[in-house]
Amino acid sequence: MPDQSLSQVRTPHTPTAEPTERANGISRRALLGTAGATGLVLGAAGGAVGYAAAPAGATPLTALGSGRAMFHGKHQPGITEGLQARGHLVAFDLVAGAGRKEAAALLRRWSATAERLMAGEPAPHDDTDVARDAGPSSLTVTFGFGRSFFGRTGLEKQRPAALDPLPDFSSDRLDKARSDGDLWVQIGADDALVAFHALRAIQKDAGSAARVRWQMNGFNRSPGATAHPMTARNLMGQLDGTGNPKPSDADFEKRIFVPASGEPAWMANGSYAVVRRIRMLLDDWEKLSTTAQEQVIGRRKADGAPLSGGDETTPMDLEKADAEGDYLVPLNAHARITRPDRNGGAAMLRRPFSYHDGIDADGTPDAGLLFICWQADPLRGFVPVQRKLDRGDALSQFIRHEASGLFAVPGGAAKGEYVGQRLLEG
């Protein structure tokens, strides 16, 4: 789990314009403005109704519900936005006999559905009403292609070299059934029902063209849960994401996105997502003292500051030593090993979710990180950092990589286009 990642600093959502109106002339948001307020009044008078409605004093469609990401743009949504409270990752395989034509029709359906749902509107057909009362809640839907997709669709010549298989790592305990896939979809939202609604719509849209290969659920801290916007914590209790690249960085676009002149042409303004299910061995981790945990990471647990001193954003002084001559940031500390300046400038934008999939028979929690990192080239981003972690990261004994995938995520669709159109119709 490279230190240069996990979360971006969360900023409050800004209420956005009214979504497109439905055929009856009343938008979901306009309806909510009246029905939601009425529900609060009925709750005060009728008891049972209020118990199931919003808490007393809540206002309909707060900033959290009204936040909206745009489907069309230079890049796909779900990459540079802040962390979302709820996420679903799902991979599909094309069914036997389905090829390029069926894949194009599927991406066209998925894009149309994603555009509507991200605007807070119902699915184009057979909507389940799960998100009927909610606003967009910053929903994002992101689509990518796995290495196997190109062989199944006869597009091998268009397969990017960056999709070459990732090397084996010593911490890998990979379950092939939960790895890879022809197609990958990332769904994120600030409301669990909105996220599930999108997942169900995407699954239904797959129809007879593709079947689910694997699916994973994740979460992050809800916006507004802290007194002020701050870097997120992972399930180990550490602030995680201090060193994430920022869109304001001069070389951000170059590091994270394929240039417009890049190859293959259909990947212009796209990115590559490495997806890893990383189990945290929490029982072992929690036996360590706070001081020992900080030595493993190289940062203070309370505020994320480097052990060399300062606050969370203070540059780490790797040469600073104590009175005995020992480095304050240990040589095998996770934060030291993952620094870009120690890895040839390798950088990736991490945007993960935590997960908890229950408790094993022996009482061990199946919990950890759905690691997602974005970069212009995984062979120059993820791979060199992970290789270095493999050789001596103190954190390695407390984590286990259990699933893996690498996906080419094309640039955003222009108005009137669907995601991947330049590949499938080029």
UniProtKB/TrEMBL annotation:
Pfam families: Dyp_perox_C, Dyp_perox_N
Residue ranges constituting the Dyp-type peroxidase C-terminal domain according to the UniProt record: 231-413
InterPro entries cross-referenced by the UniProt entry: Dimeric_a/b-barrel, Dyp_perox_C, Dyp_perox_N, Dyp_peroxidase, EfeB/EfeN, TAT_signal
SUPFAM superfamilies recorded: Dimeric alpha+beta barrel
Reactions accelerated catalytically: heme b + 2 H(+) = protoporphyrin IX + Fe(2+)
Free-text comment on the cofactor: Binds 1 heme b (iron(II)-protoporphyrin IX) group non-covalently per subunit.
Keywords assigned by UniProt, alphabetized: Heme, Iron, Lyase, Metal-binding, Oxidoreductase, Peroxidase, Signal
Residue intervals of the Dyp-type peroxidase N-terminal domain: 76-220
Cofactor(s) in the UniProt record: heme b
Main subcellular location: other
Subcellular location: Cell envelope
EC assignment: 1.11.1.-
Polar residues: bias regions: 1-14
Disordered as annotated region, ranges: 1-22
Function comment: Involved in the recovery of exogenous heme iron. Extracts iron from heme while preserving the protoporphyrin ring intact.
Protein name: Deferrochelatase
Organism encoding this protein: Streptomyces nogalater
Gene for this chain: efeB
